[in-house]
Design a protein that fits this description.
By secondary structure, this protein is α+β, with helices and mostly antiparallel strands. The protein has a single domain, classed as Hotdog Thioesterase (Thiol Ester Dehydrase, Chain A). Helix content is about 25%, strand content about 30%. A five-stranded antiparallel beta sheet has the order 1-3-4-5-2. A hairpin with a 3-residue loop joins strand 3 and strand 4. The longest helix is centred in the N-terminal third of the chain and has 20 residues. The radius of gyration is 17 Å and the shape is globular. The N and C termini lie far apart (about 35 Å). The structure holds coenzyme A. Keywords: Hydrolase.
Length: about 170
């Protein structure tokens, strides 16, 4: 399988925050943002693998900044590392200033998707070759995050999480 670059899975979704999508403080409801991120990440994983993909886990979400009603929100998703059948997707959330048009980062998240066949069984995906400095950093750290996610899910014995343990030694 020919390896791919992160830019080939880049997915950008831009949309407004409407009144039905806000909480009582008139900021974007967290669940709505999670859904937008899941959608963008799913397209990204599909672009990388060209297979059916399913969300295996939400590894990390940071709601650092509230996003007010009427904001223009951009969800930017890219595969940050591919393993055998799973792909880590890194998502950056940007909010656009109405007057200047400048975008500031509001949140970020990391999802894991798995490529599956028609019966839902995991299938292999192309490997990823990071290019930019940021892509390389995210690629390097992805194995630790995968091990952490598997340990938390009870799918990996902590003793086998070598990359993760190396952080603390
Ligand atoms: C995700 C799913 C396909 C994994 O199937 P499985 O039988 O556990 O298969 P495996 O154990 O072989 O795992 C497949 C891959 O997923 C990875 N994976 C599974 N659970 C994971 C988790 N919690 N975190 C990170 N990676 C995980 C495995 O490490 C493996 O990766 P690799 O092949 O790249 O090494 C299966 O659990 C599933 O279909 N879940 C439901 C998905 C869904 O419906 N999502 C929508 C949510 S509503």
């Amino acid at each position: 399988m020919t390896p791919k670059h992160p830019s080939e899975s880049l997915t950008i979704l831009t949309d407004l925050v409407l009144p039905s999508e806000t909480n009582p403080l008139n900021n974007l409801f967290g669940g709505e943002l999670l859904a937008r991120m899941d959608r963008a990440a799913s397209i990204s994983a599909r672009r990388h693998s060209r297979r059916i993909v399913v969300t295996a886990s939400v590894n990390h979400v940071a709601f650092n900044r509230a996003i007010p009603l009427g904001s223009v929100v951009t969800v930017e998703a890219k595969v940050s590392r591919a393993f055998k059948s799973s792909m880590e997707i890194f998502i950056d959330i940007w909010v656009e200033d109405r007057e200047s048009g400048n975008k500031t980062k509001a949140n970020e998240a990391i999802y894991t998707f798995v490529a599956v066949d028609d019966t839902g069984r995991p299938v292999e995906v192309p490997q990823l070759i990071p290019e930019t400095e940021l892509e390389k950093q995210r690629y390097e750290a992805a194995l630790r995050r995968k091990q952490l996610s598997l340990v938390i899910a009870g799918k990996m014995n902590p003793h086998d999480a070598t990359e993760l343990k190396a952080l603390f030694i």
